[in-house]
Amino acid sequence: MMNSDFDSLHQVLSLRMLTPTAYVLRVERKGLEFKAGQHLLLGRNGSIESREYSVYSTESDDFFEVLVKEVDDGLVSKQLKQLKAGDKVKLDGPLGFFTLEPETIANGKFLFIATGTGISPFHSMVKSYPGLNYRLLHGVRYSNEAYDRQDYEPSRYILCTTGDQGGDFYGRVTDFLRKNPVLKDTHCFLCGNFNMIHEAFEILEQQGVPSSQVHAEVYF
Amino acid sequence: MKKIAFKTLGCRLNQYETDALASRFHSGSYEIVDFNQQADIYVVNTCTVTNQSDQKSRQTINQAHRQNSDAMVVVTGCMANNYKESLLESKNISYVVDNERKAAIFGIVEKHFRGEVADPEGFDRDVFSYEAAYKTFHTRSMIKIQDGCNNFCTFCIIPKVRGRATSRPAADIYQNIRSVVEHGFKEVVLTGVNIGRYNDNGLNFEQLVENILALPGDFRLRISSIEPDGFSDRFFQLFAHPKLTPHLHLCLQSGSESVLLRMRRMYTAKEFRAMADKLRSLYPDFNLTTDIITGFPGETEEDMEATLQLSRELKFSHIHTFKYSVRTGTRAERMPDQIPEKLKNQRSNAVRKVSEVNKREYFTQMIGKPQRLLVERFGADGVARGYGQNYIPIRLKAKGIEKNTFVDVVLDGIHEGKELEMTAVLL
Ligand SMILES: Cc1cc2nc3c(=O)[nH]c(=O)nc-3n(C[C@H](O)[C@H](O)[C@H](O)COP(=O)(O)OP(=O)(O)OC[C@H]3O[C@@H](n4cnc5c(N)ncnc54)[C@H](O)[C@@H]3O)c2cc1C
Q1: Which residues, at least 6 apart from A44, have a Cβ–Cβ distance to it below 8 Å?
Q2: pLDDT tens digits for range B193-248
Q3: What is the DSSP letter of A183?
Q4: How close, in Å, is residue A5 to chain B by CA atoms?
Q5: Full-prediction pTM beyond 0.90?
Q6: Closest CA to A35 of A90, A96, A91
Q7: What distance in Å separates the CA atoms of residue B122 and residue B107, rounded to the nearest whole number?
Q8: Residues in chain B, pLDDT under 50
Q9: Which residue among B81, B150, B262 sits closest to A194, beta carbon to beta carbon?
Q10: What are the Cα distances from residue B197, in Å, to A189, B48, B194?
């Protein structure tokens, strides 16, 4: 199959657990070009199955990292969790168009909305462009899922939790968005669960943000 | 002289590639015969975009073998990439040639008949090394500008079988067009998997089209099938050029925002509507045609209604309707709420009905308007047939008309045949 011609094998450098089910997998980058927001196709060496994972690391890191949540009935998210330093993964990419427009980076206002591991591309963007003027809404069930929270400026990161009250806001990211309308000239990036994205699209439209300024990356 | 027959399934890109191959064999002293005839070599250029296309491809391969069990049967195209191993096991197939090596089929066949081992894997990969097709089955000349796709829509197998997006160098494209125009072709159709993403070292699709329009010669340019994402204002202005035909096949796939998101399409239904409105405000008779997939996993009655509604509103004069078909290895394969076949059929029929009504309305709107007919053929009744710049099929009864020439006509009615056509009189 043609796919295999594009895959190449990359060595696993480390696997760091963030919670019992979420982990950051670091693999060789091998000099591949990459823009913050893009994703990789990753799979176990020898398996025909692969899945998309947004890059978590920055444009200047000489490795790739991905933030993965092990899915209960999943396949690849479980397989990748078993990897150890020195193992190989097949990797294709980076791919995708969920990236910042270069001319907006210096002076643009950004709203990032993520559910779960959907925070990954924003981690890459924020760390790749330290001066970025952003606000990040992160929706999770429990407050221990505030992955690497210390990497964001505290005043810019808002943790929305639905399962406990340990976050900055008790409720869904879309509830927060309704209560805190955005300015029309904000560039909005939505990533993660389809239902959140669908709802957020509508809210942003009601708030007058033109659709050309709303970008979405649907995970599932 | 050896006889060779070709059969193409699927997209225009496949058609272009078959034409180019046929032209190569023709100039290499092979006789090209109809696929239903006895031949020494059969080339089947397959498609794997839906289950039906898999089935048709398999049937065609079997047909070739039945017609002449001693013939050399070469299978290429997307099925050759997607099901290589199982095809290689078939005794009815002599060679399985993947998409990247399709252009090498002439070399493979020649080598085979010299009695040498012609392992396709030993040939170079090059998705653009087709020679310009002068001897084709069409009067329009397709020009391949791009191959592959990086969009990864959740239903689509194409990134897997056509690979990543790559663009043909612009200089080669201009050269190719100059040469087909010199050979007398009057219409050039740009083709590729996702041509809007064309990029040759920073030269984008709009710039490419502008440069093509500036080439000398009496020809017109058709963009044909394109994905509705990332158009600049410049794109819409391009259609003011008299050489660029006012027609686009702009793939909508669904009119429901929620389905489009789950398909991971790059636009919203609202954005699509804005594009169509813009085209129609600039060019009121602009002809829009489209593709629609019915029965995508989770598609509700409400989603379907949104699709029908938008199709009516945007007045697509033709809708190519596909039933969603599970493709192994795509994200949509793993989505819940797959739709039963019966419901998919019902929904497809509903879309087809809208398409028929729209077509009739569009044709009616065009009565009394001028068109430049490119004469493609003459029917048994002596009636000239071809297409106008708006991609309307036209019938013209007139004397002294020649094939492959432009004729200025006025549309004067609708002809009810197997397919709806328009009739015209000389201007
Ligand atoms: C562009 C893109 C980028 C992605 N980036 C990431 C990323 O950075 N990190 C990440 O963890 N996942 C990401 N995903 C999802 C990822 O590709 C896989 O779908 C996920 O890891 C599950 O794969 P699996 O083989 O384990 O389970 P599968 O067998 O494929 O799926 C099992 C079920 O899990 C559900 N599911 C899928 N993803 C999730 C999830 N993240 N949380 C909860 N349920 C889910 C699916 O709806 C499915 O029903 C991304 C998806 C896309 C399209």
Answers
A1: A76, A79, A80, A83, A89, A90
A2: 999 999 999 999 999 999 999 999 999 999 989 999 878 899 999 999 999 999 99
A3: P
A4: 9
A5: yes
A6: A96
A7: 11
A8: none
A9: B262
A10: 22, 22, 6
